[in-house]
Amino acid sequence: MTNRTVFYVSESTGITAETMGHSLLSQFDAVDFEQVYMPYINTELRAHALTERMQEAAERDGVRPIVFATMLDDGIRQILRGGNCFYMELFEGFIEPLAEELGVAPSRMSGRSHAITRPSSYTKRIEAINFAMANDDGIRPDNFNRADVVLIGVSRSGKTPTCLYLAMHYGLCSANYPITEEDFVRGDVPQEVWDSRHKLFALTIDPLRLQLIREERRPGSEYASMTRCEQDIKKAQAIYRRLNVPILNTTTQSIEEISSHIVKIVGNAVTRPLVGGAR
């Protein structure tokens, strides 16, 4: 594989540069990227020091590094452009055309995209995060009626991280219920889960992928065996069919992709008809 050093550079936190850079680099599987995070490059002195690091990376790799940057200060930007690097300014192609369309000059203040500009939205997300943590792993099924989303799935299928992502990025109060051996024996889930069917989403996963995840948690255990994983998935699928709810596969889809599917459906969740009648 080809090796390239990548710098994520910003006057502020660098979150935007990192997010956009990751999205672009994900399309190039044949390259091994060494990633370097350089936030708060907000003085010319720091910018010059960074160009020295770029030169070191170029000499080590035998090819110039790639720089993803969100620099609003033109002076600092020109210093970085002058370094031995392939420089991509992620704001440059968007700010001026957008300003022209809006008829308003940009503030050119760093860190604005991550500032708490809407306190009500910030408070909603904090409350959603607290809700997800307090209602994880089926701890409080009596609270499912207060949730915006309820996820079900076998152990280690991705319920908890998805709930937290929905809370942090969308402000959705999310709870989850793990399908247990008791549920498999009965071939059914508790009444609280049925009562939440209009906002219920089932997560499934390939047995091989599940086995790898469980093996990391409990090496050599019956819980992590391929036979157990295959049986758990098969029995869970039967329960999902009874519930007749959307099923999302976490094998090849990221948490972000799963969450976006859920959010799209949740727009009509309150009025979504329940097919098949009551339990």
From TrEMBL:
Binding positions for ADP per the UniProt entry: 153-160
Enzyme class: transferase
One GO MF term attached to the UniProt entry: ATP binding
Pfam family membership, one: Kinase-PPPase
Superkingdom as given in the UniProt entry: Bacteria
Signal sequence, start to end: none
Catalytic activities: [pyruvate, water dikinase] + ADP = [pyruvate, water dikinase]-phosphate + AMP + H(+); [pyruvate, water dikinase]-phosphate + phosphate + H(+) = [pyruvate, water dikinase] + diphosphate
UniProt keywords, alphabetically: Kinase, Nucleotide-binding, Serine/threonine-protein kinase, Transferase
EC number(s) per entry: 2.7.11.33, 2.7.4.28
Keyword Kinase: yes
HAMAP family according to UniProt: PSRP
Family of the protein in this entry: Belongs to the pyruvate, phosphate/water dikinase regulatory protein family. PSRP subfamily.
Function: Bifunctional serine/threonine kinase and phosphorylase involved in the regulation of the phosphoenolpyruvate synthase (PEPS) by catalyzing its phosphorylation/dephosphorylation.
Name under which the protein is recorded: Putative phosphoenolpyruvate synthase regulatory protein
UniProt organism field: Thioflavicoccus mobilis 8321
